[in-house]
Write a structure and sequence with these properties.
- There is one protein chain.
- The chain is mainly beta and 407 residues long.
- 1% of the residues lie in helices and 45% in strands.
- It folds into 2 domains: 162 residues, Sandwich (Immunoglobulin-like); 238 residues, no CATH class.
- β20 and β21 form a beta hairpin.
């Protein structure tokens, strides 16, 4: 007689909100139950017992940043073929219609293991139960993993304040560049001599320097395939910790041949990070943009107070730059910058088509660039700046780059 391992059910206290993640298990130990064979020993003819399931991930309360990919892993034991529907459920009531369908799988008699990729940034922020609903065509068996999965913006420790929102676009977190080591650096091995891994940040502000009219501004391209409502913009920056005015400019029709036309200018208070991190700029009221190409500029009010991270892992590979007040923008690529010309930029909000509220919004996410943890490592300070010109003429068009040492 075959035997089936069944994981005990998971119960929920109906009086407690799901957001608190207070789950109560009916039991911690697995039990082994015989599978009756039709017309054989172990049970009456034609009797049927539920299939068994074991969840390997998630196995507890788990925070999943929106730029990460996890694998939902489970194993099923069954004496008959089944269909498995893998879901994210925002509440404790299975089958009430608000589940997000991740995948449908066929399971052969005898069962086996399965793995489903969870690309967190495709789904709204919030707390979810992972469910696997098994069906033999006649009976349905909903199973729930123990604990909650919380999808939250990178750098956040919960989804509080982001209900109903989702990641709309990202260039990814900046990555370090190998540069020549200087005096006092601890070098790593590298071809051509000692090198250091450093992350590039550009100086950017909008109040003109009274001596040389210097006010460097950068416009990073951003494209939306659908109409969106932006609630927050994020930039990977370092600068002063105290709250100070920052300026965000939104340009329309930004392409590789034009910086575009200024559409919106927002002056917003925000703190920065003395050692680098993602800020979060609240857009209130939310900004509605139709599908199309745009450009986004971030800068502080005064010079050398905020620095914007470059060398992000994805984007079109160019940025528009104006070094002086009133100077025309010019397109720069990695060849002129010395590092990748994609700047760190994230947009959070809603897709305007309300019918897609729970559907996967399959934006491109740089897989593997950000670990699944409750925070992220911040770079160490290195007091080291470089500057360059558009045409190798630093005096004419200076742009300053600050390099931060990383582990």
């Amino acid at each position: 007689m075959a035997r089936l391992t069944i994981r005990p059910c998971i119960c929920f206290r109906a009086t407690l909100p799901l957001a608190l993640g207070l789950l109560v298990s009916c039991g911690q130990e697995s039990v082994t139950t015989p599978i009756p064979a039709p017309n054989g020993p172990g049970g009456p003819a034609g009797s049927v017992l539920p299939p068994g399931i074991r969840f390997d991930w998630p196995s507890g309360v788990t925070l999943v940043p929106d730029e990460s990919v996890q694998s939902i892993r489970y194993a099923v034991t069954t004496d008959r073929p089944l269909t498995a529907r893998v879901q994210l459920d925002p509440d404790t009531a299975p089958g009430n219609g608000n589940e997000i369908e991740l995948a449908t799988r066929s399971i052969a008699a005898g069962g086996g293991s399965d793995e489903i990729a969870l690309t967190a940034g495709w789904y709204p922020y919030g707390n979810y139960i992972v469910r696997v609903v098994l069906s033999d065509g006649t009976r349905t068996y909903p199973y729930s993993a123990f604990g909650l999965v919380t999808i939250a913006p990178i750098g956040e420790r919960s989804a509080d304040g982001f209900a109903g929102l989702r990641l709309l676009a990202t260039s990814g977190q900046p990555t370090p560049v190998e540069v020549a080591a200087q005096s006092g650096d601890v070098p790593i091995s590298g071809g051509g001599g000692p090198t250091m891994r450093r992350m590039p940040f550009v100086d950017t502000w909008h109040v003109l320097d009274p001596f040389d009219n210097l006010a460097p501004r950068f416009i990073a391209p951003l494209e939306f395939a659908e109409a969106v409502e932006i609630h927050r913009l994020q930039f990977f920056v370092f600068g002063r910790r105290d709250v100070a005015q920052k300026r965000i400019e939104i340009y329309g029709d930004t392409t590789d041949t034009s910086p575009g036309t200024l559409l919106h200018q927002l002056d917003l208070p925000s703190a920065s990070f003395v050692d680098g991190g993602w800020n979060s700029m609240l857009i209130d009221p939310p900004l509605r943009l139709s599908a199309g190409r745009y450009g986004v500029s971030f800068h502080a009010r005064f010079e050398f107070t905020d620095h914007w991270g470059g060398n992000a892992p994805q984007g079109p590979g160019y940025v528009w730059v104006s070094a002086f007040g009133g100077a025309p923008f010019r397109k720069l690529t990695a060849e002129q910058l010395g590092f990748g010309a994609n700047f760190s930029l994230r947009a959070i909000g809603r897709v305007e088509d309300r019918g897609k509220a729970a559907a996967a919004h399959r934006i491109k996410i740089p897989v593997g660039k950000v670990p699944v943890v409750t925070g992220f490592e911040r770079p160490k300070i290195v007091d080291d700046k470089t500057h360059f010109g558009y045409e190798d003429d630093d005096e004419e068009n200076p742009v300053h780059v600050v390099w931060r040492e990383t582990e």
